[in-house]
Amino acid sequence: MTYLYLMRHGQTRFNLQGRIQGACDSPLTEEGKKQARAAYQYFQEQGISFDRIYSSTQERACDTAELASGRTDYIRLKGLKEQDFGVFEGQPEYLNPPLQGDIGYGDYFVTFGGESYKEVRLRMADTMRMILEANQHQSVLVVSHGAAIAQFFRHVLTTYPRVRMRNCTILCFTYEAGQYDLQSIVDPVQKEILYEKH
Length: 198
What we know:
By secondary structure, the chain is α/β, with parallel strands linked by helices. The protein is built from 5 helices and 7 strands; from the N terminus they run βααβαβαβαβββ. It has a 7-stranded mixed β-sheet, with helices on both faces. Helix 2 (about 30-45) runs parallel beside helix 3 (about 60-70) and helix 4 packs across helix 5. The protein is globular and about 45 Å long. The two termini are about 20 Å apart. About 45% of the residues are buried.
């Protein structure tokens, strides 16, 4: 059995400015760096160490992975990138369409050169499977993005909690025989347990 710790990156400049940020990138703010260090502190306090660390290729995720783990020997994978929002990239968030229940923005951004929710789900699921089945790890940290993470857990879980993906939120799964089981969702910044399996 493998423990998978799936984490969103820290706050970025575009997060702070309320801009749509998927395929485009912006750096972590000082607050974002502080959030990532809070995740590091959480892992230390819980006695959690990692056999392998993976990150999206985007700078905001890479920097978060380094700060949250205290290590630089992580593996960057394009399959962990955020959803591509096409021509909406970098635009104000108020231009986003209404969310469509459990499929997020659905296929809205495809018309504008972006990815569909199904493309993101399959990309994330395939990348996670490759990570978890390539080697027999006991504990893995993966740093990715809000929409990508949400689409992933909606794809692999039958039921799941309705939790907003705050910056540096950590989802802990167990993975065995191709099955994911969500154990907890923790906000290390606010020191708050957002979900715990009973």
